[in-house]
User: Fold these one by one.
Assistant:
Number 1:
Amino acid sequence: MSAQTPAIEARSLSRILPGLVPAVLVDGVDFRAEKGELVAITGASGSGKSSLLYLLGLLDEPTSGSVIIAGQDCAPLSDAERTFLRLERLGFVFQFHFLLAEFSVLNNVCMPMKKLGRLSDAEQDAHGRELLKELGLQGFEKKLPEQLSGGERQRVAIARALANAPGILLADEPTGNLDSKNSRIVFDIFRNLARDHGKTIITVTHDHDLARTCDRQVHLADGKVVA
Amino acid sequence: MKLLLHIALGHLLARKRQTLVSMMGVAMGVGFSIAMASLMEGSQRDFITRIVDNMPHIVIKDEFRANPLQPVDLLFQKGAVELKGLKPKDEIRGIKAPWNKIEALEALPGLKVAPTLSSQIFLSFGGKDVSATLLGIDVERERQATSIEADIVTEGGLDSLHTAANGLILGRGLAAKLGAQPNDTLTATSASGVVMKMKVVGLFHTGIISVDSSQSYALLKKAQILADRPNVINLMRIKMSDPMAAVDMALMLESRWGYKSESWQESNEGLLGAFAIRNAVMYITVSAILIVASFGIFNVVSTVVYEKTRDIAILRSMGFEPSDIKGIFLLEGFLVGLLGALLGWGLGFGLCQILGMVRFNIKMMTEVQGFILHSTWIHYTLSGAVAATSATLASYLPARKASRLKPVDTIRGAA
């Protein structure tokens, strides 16, 4: 990837839900985020923030336009190739932690590594513990998600999103269910990941104070970038 | 696969009670199917063994399946011929040139022949008259071709027929009807009116009630004298080293000599057909049990899919493919089926042991002292395979539904 190549880019991206009255979720959005950049996507409810994030994360398919990740156009990729790209290069954090309730914290974190299968069991275990330690969750490895607080669960979800060392982290209102203290902790982690680890982080948020702490803000209204 | 198994086990272990109930459903199906199959096959094998061991594999009778063709029939084979007032020739009954035929049969490999004169007699003793079938036999050939000697419960075996002038071996049931004991002298009267004093020299017991209560044995010569049919043989009872080849051999013999040749399968056609119907009923019943158990599995896996919609979405967003998701839920069904089958094997084995200990004494067609069970690895493998397959199939629909879930819809719904 050359110095000018953005980590992720959207070109004329649109998503229209078909129906008697088609709903325009994202309308011709051009967007780019560089390596090591922390970008906040803001906007009112229904402005298309999350829809844009899902399109960038290859969870949804655009009606038109394309998503380019590290110079690779994802439009012609098959579903399996897009799935593998998600596994290898993208990490997701959602408003709800979505941890697997039956599995321990460490098992949850190791799940993407197990799926990718590049590390041995021992290496997965060590890497998982290291991630948890970095996020201040040392000693929580064997606990079940139900034994953690909301903030702790969200940090476990961040650790899981980072398990395969993706270059891009996509967060959909990650602080939506957290108090202000935990929200700050999460954003501190994001800043640290962007600044010190060169991760590209794109986060959707309603919280303008937190958005202001990001490198850049992209404001959406009616599915279009307005600022 | 290891990861999918890990997740599937996690889901099942999180719902221990539901999983256990589903497994028990499968286990009951498998266990009862093994016990039922063992019971059915045991009784069927026992009955067939008794028939095969105690009865001739082929009986050649001095009868014909169809009336002989008249010269006019032979002349106008395709003509519409009607004969009226036809008088059948009064032929002497019996197989013609029997000893030539016996010689020919004995030259065939694996065949033993017992020439017999079968006739109906009346036995009188102590004021009782009982109708019986008398089989006049050649002791040496009888010994080789039948297992009757093993069923003689008194001393001397078939050779005891030589110990008295007119020796008679009676079925134990027949002796009981007459109130006769060994060494008693009975009066035998044949249909032709010949009366002969005969001494009971032995008793036999085959376990087949109809045989034990009506059959008796004497030397062939004595039977011919009693029936007033010198040198006549009207039955040839054949024992084969391969009883299953009896049908083909009987067909061949009948086409060669014309005499009605009946295989043991033909003689017991109705019974063997009843066995087939009984087995079909059993397999339908057992399948129904397994289908009901499969609904339980369908229910469990469907519930898990419903409850785990968010997990499915996150797994998909993480990079799990639809086939992985389908695999997880199919594995859950398969695991319930497999573990249920293993439990069912234990249950089936236990049931067989318990049934094997039950004792009773019922006189039906054969004398039965308890359940006769015959378990084979086929019963275990078949029931286990059917259970695991039906459990996996039951989980297919929910698994397919899970694999088709769009993660973005779930995540949007949860937000």
Number 2:
Amino acid sequence: MSTPSRLSLTQAPPISVPLRFFFTAPFFGILAALVQINAGPDAVSQWTPTTLAITHLLTLGYISMVMIGAMSQILPVVAGSPLPRPLLVSSVVHTLLTLGVLALASGLLFGRGEAVLIAMFLLGAGLTVFIGAAAYSLILANADNATVSGMRVAIVALAITVVFGLRVAAEHVLHLDLPIAKSWTHAHLTWGFIGWVGILVISVAYEVVPMFQMTPKYPQWMQRWMTKMILVGLLFWTSVYLLAIIDSTIWNILTLLLSFYLAIGLSVFAGVTLYLQSQRQRRIADLTLKFWRLAMVSLLLCTSLWVVGQFWPSLGNWRNIGYLNGMLFIFGFAVSVIIGMLYKIIPFLVWLHLQRQNTRRIKLPNMKEIIPEQRIRWHFVLHLMLLPLLAGVAIKPVWFVYPAATLFGISSLLLLFNIFTALRIYQGYYTSM
Amino acid sequence: MDGTQRLEMDTISSNFASDHLHCDVLFCRAENYVQSNDWQQAKKVFIEFVEEMEWHFTKETDVLFPSLVERNSNALGPTQMMRMEHEDMRQLMEDMQKQVDNRDADNYLGLSETLLIMLHQHNTKEENILYQMADGLLGADQREILAQASAVKKQGAVIL
């Protein structure tokens, strides 16, 4: 039973806590685009160091950056339990993460083992501090609901992702000339994508999908079991995949079956979300809804493509299938959800924190005046155009890689501009109060 | 939201959370009317929405919150936060009322968006944490508190 002793309905963290993460993310988006433009079409196929650098600029610098900021904001609301020392923790995590991603990307790009080593310490330390703080908050949570238990699972998955990542990086540092052991890399990215990003999005969806659009709630069985079932699936998959104790035929079949299980789990989530959104009470089809729908359709495409690839060898063996699936997951699914969420969270936080200071009761701008809908619509159009271009990159890199990278650069610039203007509005009102 | 349905809900959490659902429905209906420029209906439903919101606030601030603080003084901080958020929402509803009177859909929708998130993050905190705590703290007294709460008179829309 919850005790009121640590009940913290009061502590929305200072606005600078989440916003430092949100504001940094688009810079990494722009950087990823520039690196891709500089590298050209050669960086597309397979795991070249350049591809790894771009991937981490996106997954750590953009996606995880926003997700960590969002968690620091959402924990007091859903769990009644804020991060401990939020200003200190967020400063440390944000600094280490930012420097760590820069070190990792430059180490990979310029083939400097010592930079990768420094990155391992920075990222290892930064993410450990975040995992520790989030775990502390989630263990002491006053609430016990599907979002809280899902976030616990996501934090476990993040920890495992970090361990595998450090393992892969260590190998890279020690034998720079050798190809990276494929199975550890595969385990690292599977935990990162499905475990950390996938499960966190699912957990947050339980709260925000019904909240923003007034849809029915997710079914009880799903809220209770889905994130745990995915965790168990990932654990089995990893043991079978990495240990390879049994002979290779059975091993391959088992890995395949467990992969199907995970793909089905993610597809069910996407399908149920689309269904719930179609049942919404709110008639306004706002842009966050469109971003979420795009994310769910991309996730379904990603899992379907993977499943079809298993039965249709000419697709499954196509050398860029992994690239296409990765792009669908990163840009189609994760980045879409993130952009959609940021355009709700940021205007709301600006309004909320101004409202708190507003003792003289001056008229405050509403959310749609803080970031005008028209500019969000432009961003949606740019993002929507990006996805077919990325598919094009997988098919014909020489043609599509420059337009796709440029478009994502512009889209990140627009995100930066939109966040920047929202902050200017905040500062303008704040100083006049 | 008739009386028979209420009587079946013996816990604070189920009873008070059902008020939230009821207000959500009214919020949506008002917004949908505004969006389709049906101002007559919009005004009618909006007034009903504000009345229900005010009734729910009063049940909390006059009955539920004091009963919690009486049993555990640690509940004071969280309930004060909830009162403050009620004030935030009142201000937004006042502004929305002006837009209904001016028939200004754009401004109404900007404000309703803000209210929606304010309202839901508030409800989430209450449903996930405060009401759960209330179920535990009040125990067998829940029926009595619920009876007192439902005896609270609807004020009519104060702000109108």
Number 3:
Amino acid sequence: MVATIVVGLAIAGPVRTPDGVAMFTMGGHGAKLIFFHVPCAWLASLAYIVGAIYAVRVLLSGGKSPEVQADLDIKACTAMELGLVFAFLATVTGSIFSHNEWLTFWNWREPRMVSIFVILLIFAAYLVLRQAVDNPTRRARLAAAYALVSVVPGMFLIWVLPRMVATLHGDANQAVMGNNLGGMYRPVLRYLALPAFLGLFGWMFQLGVRAKRLAARHAAE
Amino acid sequence: MGLLAGAFAVLRKELQTELRDRAALNATLLFSVAGLAIVAYGVGPAVLPAVVQSALLWVVLFFAAFSGLAHVFTHEEEAGTSSLLRLTADAHAVYLGKLLFNLLLTVLIALITVPAGLVAVSASPDRPWVFAAVALSGVLALATSATVVAAIIARAQGRGALFGAVGLPLLLPVLLIAVDATKNTLEPEMIPGLAMREIVGLCAFAVMVIAASWLVFPAVWEE
């Protein structure tokens, strides 16, 4: 019930927000894409963090029963799958936004575009790696190890690279929380879109975990 | 056996086996020469801007090094010797020894590819030592990332294609910085401060990857 209201507000909020926004040159509804684009990028990062935390727990659960490890592995994998979905959505919406605003779909000198693309590749590589290992225990460990090693380039891309080169997203820190947005955009993004998308993530996450547990039980029977 | 002694023992074993059966080594070296020839042929007499020269150099170096770096772990699985190594050596000693071997191999590949590559794209760095330092730090970052990925994919199926698919995403940030840094050193007016910062960036990346690999390697290596 609460979730429905929040999601409803998250959809209604952007629609009721005035068109255009101070920092962008484009008018009309185009600028409203950020209500979708920014939360998708947040969720992609969140999925990465959640996946990495479960990966650590998979590696630490070595001494425990295989069931515990398998369940943690299911959670890590679900987070990474959601990460792939949201990184893909963030990439596509960002590209469309970029075309509206800067008249180019892609620019390899823009660090945020490069980083979302590389993170997209890392999510995909994680899932490809999983498909290439049959033994479930080994799969859990190898995937977790890969997820953790990939944190290094991930951190590099998110925190180091945007500071080494100029970016279109304005100051890297501010752009992350939407501080540089004017008018109603910031409150709508922060207080409506953020909780709504967090709720969406939680809902999708537990659905994915439950589906995988059922599949695992089915395979075992 | 202490950690370092173990690591050097593993390194010596790798060197001995590779030099005894030189097939993999020769294939890797031939691959880098062939890759260079293709670039040189494609470029022809054209005068390229520094950014294209640098990008071509790194693409050749990446693929040449990448073709050989997985072997250090895959050959153990193919020959069925990994269990024996697991029994006789500590996991961290194995990691260090194999990392050292891959570092040596990548430096060897770079010693062939980079000077010849400079000729192929007709580039001449103003300050060769700065250029060499950039290339070396890039090679360091490349070899450290490739080694841990090799350890992971050696235990999976379909290793050849998997190594590229799983390894390249980790290496894209390295490529990005290395190409930028090399472009700077190939430009008529090099900015020394920028080169320094990028060398530090690449070395820091290598150190972080070694630290992360050190932590996860036992989980990858042990049964």
Number 4:
Amino acid sequence: MTNMWINPAFLFILGSFLIPILKGRVKQTFLLLVPAAAFLDVVLMSQGTYGAVQFLGMDLIFGKVDRLSLVFAHVFTLMAFIGVLYGLHVKDDGQHVASFLYVGSSLGVTFAGDYVTLFIFWEIMAFASVFLVWYRRTQKAVDAGFRYLLVHVVGGLILFAGILLRHGEVGNFAFSHISPEGATLATFLIMIGFCLNAAVPPIHAWLPDAYPEATVTGAVFMCAFTTKTAVYVLARAFAGFEILAILGAIMAVYGVCYAVIENDARRILAYHIVSQVGYMVCGIGIGSQMAVNGATAHAYAHIIYKGLLFMGTGAVLEMTGRSKLSELGGLYKYMPLALFFTVTGGISISGFPLTSGFISKSMTVEASENYSIFIMLMLLTASIGTFLSVGLKLPYFIWFNKDSGIKPKEAPLNMKLAMGIAAFICYFLGVYPKFLFDMLPYPVHWEPYTASHFAEVMQLLLFTGLGFFLLLKKLTPEPTLNLDVDWFYRKGAKAFMWVANKPIAIYEEYLGEIYNKWFTNFTLRFSNFLWRIFDVKIIDGIVNDIAEFWKDLGGVARLTQTGLVRNYAFFMLLGGIVLITYYLFK
Amino acid sequence: MIKKAVDYIGNPENSVKLRRFFYITLVMVVLLDIGVHLFHTEHTADLPQGEHESANLSHKGHDAGEEFIGEKIWGFWAIYGFIGCIIMIFVCKGVGHAWLMKKENYYD
């Protein structure tokens, strides 16, 4: 360990403390410098194990740097820079601090070499990110934030239980690959903890619940880090677990199905995070070198294009105050740039040739073909749904269709710049995939641009487009709320409150009745008896006698109380003389 | 430039031209697919075997080399995309209307 290693996580976490002190241009420069420095730090970092600390007899490793952690850290710091640039105009220091802590803790997880370090950063992530929801300062956001936090606290507890059980089994906290053959309860508890953050159904509902309620910039950060750190830890620990391949494929289809019926632009995108992370989880579950490469490449590409999509729809929300498709329309004359950027994200997520999605998604799909045809078909079905909702429905109903009558301006310069950089990366990776392929954990012997692959993807997507235009009327967004598994805890909490209010209240009333009838009655009778015998005869007897005595005494003493000042003055003078005489002659 | 392109696409006067362009593209990609089937023999099974080796040598149900039936049919992915899209819209909207879609104040 000869060369110095700076943990980029600490650049962000320590940097967050300076944000409230700095002002104006200095602050904006500082906000951009920290992610830029962290990005350079990651680019110049060499592989190895750094930052090993002994703490309470545990070996903590803050810097496990290998190809897998490096590629994730690369895109995390890059996205942090884009996200900070996008939110540079935000005056709310709290949002900047929260996003810095959030990014920092995600990087902490990425470089963690043991479960204790991982868990600590994992929890900071949840607590920092919830503020990005709360800073929206609407009642809906506050409520959604609490639900988000509660779900993540439960997930954290499950993870923690798994970590402790695992320590009991293997005797250390080392965070490394677990073989599917050696899986125990501890393994699955840890996996559930990770899967919760990856939003694997049925423990995914926190994501489409909370992300659309976050602030405009908050959502840009959130869509990048929580699910992708989960993908990273799954890739490190659970590659080759068949259950993940199946769940991933289900996720991919599940997300797009909800997106078809969803009305809120950012909630459509949130459901597409579930879907896209499905490809990654599936690739990890398949576990072959190509599949893990595909999952990693897709995570890289996804962070950028999903960030771009959230920035595009965020720009619309920022300028119009609306995010529901049913309230938008006809913006193409006023926000053409935002349209261009959103469509760039839309065709990237759909995997059109020359965009980042084409080179990353198809690697996972290709790997799945060798694993199971059925899973491959599910992933391709999800591709259809992705283009349908994000590539077509979302831009069409925001920028075209009916004229909603609003005439917004384009977003501020910093937002446009951030979207421009992200859009550039989407095309750059699509045109020059070697840049990404060289960073992947395993060597890549695969060429995305073949005639058959090109023909396959273009047919699938363009004929989806044909279906869209033919059934355009049927797809008109409807202002509804769509039930998802969050129903169980949202209604569950209501049911709990009802149980507390109604049956328990009735039971309490009933209990009160019994209490009145029996217990109160009995005590009343008993005390009545006590009163008649004990009180009247004995206690009262004594008390009355004593009272009689004081009454008699009072009768005598009463005679001295004449009420005349002259008498009192006489007695005071007399007393005074007696006292003085006593002291003089003693 | 972007603004001009967007204005052109958004202008209702150009919708016929755009639609015609879209249909021509559809025909062209199907023709391309037919061309690929006729003149191209490339297949994933030709890739080095190591490519499909499991990183962890653990998974089951691995059937490398077996070709998917759809890849032999001309224009299969065009049909899959079109029918998949239509089924998805009908099923999702159907289930949505029958069960999942509630009033926006459902939880309030």
